[in-house]
Design brief:
Shape: elongated
Distance between the termini: 54 Å
Number of strands: 6
Strand content: 5-15%
Number of domains: 3
Low-confidence stretches: 34-40
Number of helices: 9
Largest sheet: 3 strands, antiparallel
Order of helices and strands: HHHEHHEEHHEHHEE
Mean pLDDT: 84
Length: about 190
């Protein structure tokens, strides 16, 4: 097929029919490029057709519960079973199964980057920009308290903790190890 299109590109100068083939080829190339760009811009949604809708369901559950451990009705697990399976297989969530049940008891959103992906897709950009600005400008050795930031910018603590975790993973600082704490100190 590629050799045919090469010949048509050469012939397009003199033959109107060949020009039609070139136009179709260019349109197909544009569609492929758009699909590749979409995959780069939104790498989660391209994994399964149900993932955009499930992502929104998970986002609203994170906001409502302000916890990364979530419980859903059986209908949600049934409707999005394959999408849940993909998220689990990619390590973005962890399903807690029970031996006598078809459905998980709960899921835990384990990947902070996935939490930030959800936040970026569905939360106000202004709030995320403010959160990142606060963490970026944290002075070395100073501790940021998640609860204080939460009051200031009205974001669930689960999103704030995810930012802290990502900064720690990149070596920019450390998170408090105290149980239930959401604190971060910059080290660089």
């Amino acid at each position: 097929m590629e050799s045919f299109l090469r010949i048509m590109r050469v012939a397009a100068v003199n033959f109107p029919v060949a020009a039609s083939f070139i136009q179709i080829s260019n349109e197909l190339d544009a569609i492929k490029i758009k699909q590749r760009l979409d995959a780069l811009e939104d790498p989660i949604s391209v994994l399964h057709t149900d993932l955009p809708a499930l992502s929104q369901v998970i986002y609203f559950a994170l906001v409502k519960n302000d916890s990364s451990t979530l419980n859903f009705r059986d209908e949600i697990y049934t409707k999005y079973s394959r999408a849940f399976a993909i998220l689990d297989s990619k390590g973005l969530i962890m399903k807690f199964d029970q031996a006598d049940s078809l459905y998980p008891v709960a899921i835990k959103v384990t990947d902070p980057c996935f939490i930030l992906y959800l936040c970026a897709r569905f939360e106000e950009t202004k709030k995320m920009d403010l959160l990142l600005s606060i963490v970026d400008s944290c002075e070395r050795g100073k501790w940021l308290q998640g609860a204080e930031i939460q009051k200031e910018i009205q974001l669930p603590i689960v999103f704030i903790q995810a930012v802290f975790d990502v900064y720690q993973a990149n070596g920019f600082g450390i998170c408090s190890k105290a149980i239930g704490a959401c604190s971060y100190s910059a080290s660089s």
